[in-house]
Amino acid sequence: MARAYETIDINKSIKVYNEILNDYNSMKSLNGYNQIVVMHLIAQLETRRGNNTKALELCNNILNMKSLSEYVLDELDDRLERVEFLRNSLLESTK
After folding, report:
1. Rounded CA separation 87/60 (Å)
2. C-alpha to C-alpha distance for 77 and 71, rounded to whole angstroms
3. Vertex 93: Cα angle to 87 and 95 (nearest 5)
4. Residue 26: what are its φ and ψ, rounded to 5°?
5. How many domains does the chain have?
6. Number of alpha carbons in the 13 Å side-chain half-sphere of residue 35
7. Domain extent for 78
8. 50 DSSP assignment
9. What is the pTM assigned to this prediction?
């Protein structure tokens, strides 16, 4: 549902993604994979909405996540590179 709202109502999409993220964060024994995906999606939407501060905060949170397994790091390698690229572009835009 959040994906469907992305082109119609960014604010609603972000709200739904945040609800999903809160559900993931309340669960135990997760490997971080889904949280990273959802946080990256929110960061991209926050950038589109013009909320670069929030997007940068999310990127930093993703890149500072500890105790990710090698499996998760391998699976998310491309995404983590895109998160770092987004973070660097946000930092450049604030100069």
Report:
1. 7
2. 10
3. 110
4. -85, -10
5. 1
6. 22
7. 2-93
8. T
9. 0.92
